[in-house]
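Data card: per-record layout.
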Amino acid sequence: MLETLLTNFLLDFGLLLLPLLFILIVEKKKPNLKDFGFKTKGAIEDMALSSKIFLALLIYSFLLSFLFFIIGLNDLQGVQDGINSIVGLSPLLLVYFFLVRVFLEEFFFRAFLVPRAGVVISSVLFGITHYGYGSIGEIVGAVFLGMVLAIAYKQHGRILPNYVGHLLYNLVAISFMV
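The structure for this 178-residue chain is written out next.
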């Protein structure tokens, strides 16, 4: 248990630190919050975009679930077991994953990688990071849902609507598993 917690905190630290070090050392620039999508078009427009992203994630998730059902790919038990073990350790850990991990995923995979590596590479890497559940469906789903998030970030360049859409999606998806 302690090993799992430490691994996750180190991963989160890396998701935050790697982009900052890359910009400082490789790009030789001072990190700027606006370069990471920390900008707004106002609360109403950001909420509307968050809602659109959330709905797009839900629609694509349902389509993927239907496709997985048709081809007989039903291997999400590992995901459900992983979520249940997190809840069993501490509900606060689940809150941490919702609030902090989702933000760091958006920060790293969308705000950092999309402008530098593109939509496809950032989405494939996002999918690969979901291998820990031992589910092909989770990896493929994360790649496609990562593409929705990456396209939204590329089009709008704002991290907050991505974060809120991703957070809401995870809340809904996980509420069906717990």
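Known properties of this structure: Residues 19 and 112 are 6 Å apart (CA to CA). The radius of gyration is 16 Å.

See the next section for split statistics.
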